[in-house]
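Sample entry follows:

:::
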Amino acid sequence: MAILTRAHVSTSRRARIRPLGCLFASAALVVTAPVVARASLDQEGQTITQLAAEVNSSDAKVRRAALKALASRGPEALEPLSLLVGDPEREIRSDAIRAIAAIYVEPPPRERVSNAEDAFGWTRYRTTPWAVPPALLTNLVRGLADEWASVRREAAYALGVVMTPPIDSRVADELIYSLADPDGSVRLAAARALGRLRATRAGDHLIGSIVDPDLPVRLAAIHAVGEIREARALVALQQQLDYYRGATAGRAALEALARIAHGSTSNLFAQERFSNSEAHRRYAYEGIARLGATSAGDAVAMEQALTGERDEAVAAAMAFALAAAGRPYVDRLVVALADDDTANQALDYVVELGTAKPSLLAPYLKHPDAIVRERIATAMGFVGDAGAEAALSQLTSDGDPSVRRAAETATIRIRMSKLAGKVRPAP
């Protein structure tokens, strides 16, 4: 993996950006045709090879036109677009990052990808894990040291979009370095990306960012230590919860504690499940689910409490805790999965449950509701056991195009994981 670290990056913008011809060589691209006479880039039928030659042009207008044409070409355009991420023109660099994010991420209905931050914010479940060209990784890392804060921010979010955990330690180190960026929006992007990418080596630095002067950065750091399940953050998180109990930081701290699910917090979750705050109740039940030590008596009491719970997010968390305890509540989670308001929350739960027991999800691929089939297929792509691809194959002829697309994306994710050696063998 060719990665240009900041140790190799001069503080001079001119020195930071290598000539595009050099980028061609370093990225080992197969596009070797010489620059051809420029044809109209609005003309249909221009090949990727022709457009790739034009991104290497010395004329910025030619490169911008090539970028516009490549942006509509899908994943086959990733390699030439990757070169434009290192373009000398700031506008081209930014637009190339946006175009790449739009290839990896499918926006919600009636939305479009305006920037990499948008793409990152629409959850990992909307991302297709296309292979990352070496030049893209190199130029995004270089973008973290760009002279423009907007490019540094977008590069951090783009890394969070295009990469899947576990990530190369050198990339993690570059994002960690960005936690000290003078611009708060860059620190925010770095903290969010480190959490999404499960960069466990960032633990100490993220704990330090819990006292960042910018509240959004502090909240992102709290969330990130939960995502990487950093047990050394327990004291800092408990302090945040105690001091900001009724505020956003307190809720974020409890959520992070629920993700870490350390044995020392079991009494805290037992108390918080009776809180007047819906968010506190939800996170308490998530913590109980992940601790995995629910007694039969507690499960019965939880079932009784579930009948009177009016908040759907809390009810979904209770069903998660009961399903984790071996109770037959996956069907209740499927109901939450079909509801747009709780779908992403329920997806997190079924992925966790399916990772522990992959066979749990396969029967729901035959569910009569196409929305459920679509979202279960998405979940199975993240579960990633060796039998998931065979189970997903039954959806290749599904009558709903959204289901077929979700199954295809999940299959791509599983196959990419196989190539990276991340798939667990079939039980």
Summary: The chain has a mean pLDDT of 88.
